[in-house]
Amino acid sequence: MVDHAHNLRASFNVPTTGKKIKPIGVITRGTTGVNRLRRFDRWCFHHDRVRSLVAGYGFGTLALDVGYGASHTTTVEWGRWLHRLDSKMRVVGLEINPERVLPAQGGVSFELGGFELAGYQPQLVRAFNVLRQYDVEQVADAWNTVTSRLAPGGLFFEGTCDEIGRRCSWITLDATGPVTLTLAWDPWGVEKPSDVAERLPKVLIHRNVPGEKIYSLLAAADAAWDYSAGWEPYGPRVRWEKARLMLVEQGWPIEIPRRRVGDCLLTVPWDVVAP
């Protein structure tokens, strides 16, 4: 079994005062691809709290994509979605590897930086496929470093996905800490909801064992999915909608999207799955 608990380590005790702020983090593999984060991008665009946050600040909202990797692609794609909410929003990609810092393009600028956010106080921050390569014990430090630097009401999204974005998960955090966990997957790309477990956020991936909350949630989702097999002729999206409704009827506090999207989504309050 792969050991998900111990990988890269960063120093989160680096002073961030003075004229020059030292980036916090370590250089990761940085692999990425076109449309890899499309499920998050769509969810983010339609999410009520994100839309209210952007509207509340008016023009000039700032969004940071931390650790965008070896390519600017996913940052530019996120920027396109965000600019539909606020055409004047500033979108900045931050990379700790200076060789990956690129000239501005696609309405997005790129700078050297890490979890210290390069001195910014943004409304939105995203860090995908970054902490999955870190030591699990450093997750809380990374979260605190980011959330302590958010603008009032700001949100931080920390997650992971597979190489082509079929299976994706992320945690939404605000200044108080984790708020929700969202799982998203291609309706035709998985056989059962628990297949997404291989791409859980770092803090949860090694917790998917009997006795843990995340294991119980995924087991319940699989059971509801199996029970809803009669809806399969209508397609996997309809089948998942029926399975998710069953989970709600069983008492799981699942968020039901107001708008139907092409992805299968499962969002729960953080305390439902917290280790």
Q: Give the helix proportion (percent range).
A: 25-40%
CATH architecture: 3-Layer(aba) Sandwich
Strand content: 15-25%
The tally of structural domains comes to 1
The radius of gyration over CA amounts to 18 Å
What summary fits the major beta sheet?
8 strands, mixed
Distance between the termini: 20 Å
How does the overall form come out from the CA principal axes? globular
Sheet with most strands: strand arrangement: 3-2-1-4-5-6-7-8
The structure class reads: alpha/beta
Mean pLDDT: 91
Number of strands: 8
Number of helices: 7
* Helix and strand element order: HHEHEEEHEEEHHHE
The parts where pLDDT drops under 50 for at least 5 residues are 1-6
The CATH class label is Alpha Beta
Protein name: Methylase
Organism: Corynebacterium callunae DSM 20147
